[in-house]
Amino acid sequence: MSGPSSSSGKSSGRIYKLLTTDNQIFEMTREDMSHGTVLAGVAALTDTKSGLSINDPIEMPRVNSDVMRLIQRWCQMCRVDNPTTSNWKEEFLSELPDKEIHGFLLMGEHLGMKSLVEAAKKYLDGRIREQQKSKKKKIPTTPGSSKKSGGGGPPRKTI
User: Fold this and answer.
1) pLDDT tens per residue across span 69-114
2) Phi, psi torsion values for 16, nearest 5 degrees
3) Residue 47 is assigned to a structural domain of this protein
4) What range does the domain containing 104 cover?
5) How many angstroms separate the CA atoms of 68 and 74, rounded?
6) Is residue 4 part of a domain?
7) φ and ψ at 59, to 5 degrees?
8) Are 13 and 31 in contact (CB under 8 A)?
9) CA distances from 3 to 7, 56, 80, 126 (A)
10) Does the predicted TM-score (pTM) go above 0.90?
11) 145: helix, coil or strand?
């Protein structure tokens, strides 16, 4: 995973510095920022705002470094994605604990990242379905209630 101040992968264009709530700075390209409507809007505002230095970090309220690291990686992967041969989204999400997926999904919604939100919802839906299937398989039967033993009475003791 990429860390603060890292922009792995090659892309031309301006590099934006994003400051998280825990004071970590992450770098993202304009192309990476385009994967979220809010991120793209922030980039556009930054480009047109006079007096803002290219080195000034953009504050990202409500985004901590753990989530920003995932957002950064997601955007980089979207940039190099080949949708016809790649299943990286599911693999990416499968590596995350439930708590991180939920936070990642919420931040994706907050930042307007449609591909992230759709993939995370689809992934979570599949996981919920799998959990429901496994719970159905594990439901214990009450002793003496199977059709083979003749139904309802208490289990017979054999000595």
Assistant:
1) 999 999 999 888 766 667 889 889 999 988 888 889 999 999 999 9
2) -105, 140
3) yes
4) 15-137
5) 10
6) no
7) -70, 135
8) yes
9) 8, 19, 19, 29
10) no
11) coil
Distance CA 131, CA 110 (A): 28
- Report the relative pairing of strands 58-59 and 15-19 from DSSP bridges: parallel
Residue 35 lies in a domain: yes
Burial class of 157 by CB neighbour count within 10 A (0 to 12, 13 to 18, 19+): exposed
Decide if 28 is inside a domain: yes
Look at strands 15-19 and 25-29 and give their pairing. Answer: antiparallel
Closest CA to 81 of 35, 140, 132: 35
Starting at the earlier edge strand, list the strands of the sheet with 15-19.
25-29, 15-19, 58-59
Number of domains observed in the structure of the chain? 1
pLDDT digits (tens, 9 = 90+) for 24-38: 999 999 999 999 999
Shortest CA distance to 120 belongs to which of 90, 77, 79? 90
CATH number for the domain spanning 51: value is 3.30.710.10
